[in-house]
Amino acid sequence: MVSFLGVLSAVMLFVFAKPLARILSGGGDAVCAPSLMMLSPALLVMGIISSRKGFFQGKSVMTPSALGQLGESLIKVVLGIGLCAVFVKKGIAYGAAGAIAGVTAGAFIQAIVLESFYRRENKIKGTYSTKKALEVFKISVPMTLGAFGFTAVMLLDSLTVPKLLVSVGESFPERLALMGYLTRAMTIYNLPATVISAFTASAVPALARARAEGDRGKSGESSVRVIKLILLAALPCALGMMLFPKELFLLIYSSKSHASLLALYGMIVIIMPYVQTTTAMLQTLGKVWAPIWVTVGAVVLKAILNVVFVKAFGIAGAPFATIAAFSVAVIINTFMLTRLTSLKGAVKVAGKILLCALLSCGGARLIYNTVPSVITLLLCVMLAATLYFALIFIFRCITKSEILGKE
Question: What pTM was computed for the model?
Answer without folding.
Answer: 0.83
